[in-house]
Amino acid sequence: QAQFVESGGGLVQPGGSLRLSCAASERLFSFVMVAWYRQVPGKQRELIAGITNGGRTNYEDSVKGRFTISRDNAKRTVELQMNSLKPEDTAVYYCNFSPPGTNSWGQGTQVTVSS
Fold first, then answer.
1. pLDDT band at residue 51 under the 50/70/90 scheme
2. How far apart, in whole angstroms, are the C-alpha atoms of residue 113 and residue 99?
3. Is the separation of the CB atoms in 4 and 97 below 8 Å?
4. Residues forming a β-bridge with 96
5. Backbone angles phi, psi at 82, to 5 degrees
6. Per-residue model confidence as pLDDT tens digits over 94-114
7. Cα–Cα distance between 11 and 26 in angstroms, integer?
């Protein structure tokens, strides 16, 4: 089981920015696709941004053009730059493999967008 530790969340006003970071314990991180997910109470966790080990990215439609995912294989980290944040981006954000399979989930980091 790989462990992922997310950080960087917080309270931000609409239109603001945050940068989330995730550290992975698994050395195989460098060879697999990883992603950022988010979940709001009462809804399923959804994948919002993914990145292959080679740096190819994909985004869920609602975050395209606003969020940017990046990774550093040497440091085993993946980051999510979030710009032009909206209240509907409020959620707990997680990182994990893509697909996560049976890998466990970290505690996530709360992002709240509110004036």
1. very high
2. 27
3. no
4. 35
5. -115, 120
6. 999 999 999 999 999 999 999
7. 30
pLDDT, tens digit, 9 for 90 and up, residues 10-50: 999 999 999 999 999 877 777 789 999 999 989 999 999 99
Question: Cβ distance 17 to 111 under 8 Å?
Answer: no
The three-class DSSP label of residue 61 is helix
Separation in Å, CA 64 to CA 23, 50, 68, 101: 23, 12, 8, 25
Only one residue has tokens 């439609």, namely 61
Determine the Cα–Cα distance for residues 63 and 32; give it in Å rounded to an integer: 22
Residue 13 and residue 30: Cα distance in Å, rounded?
Answer: 34
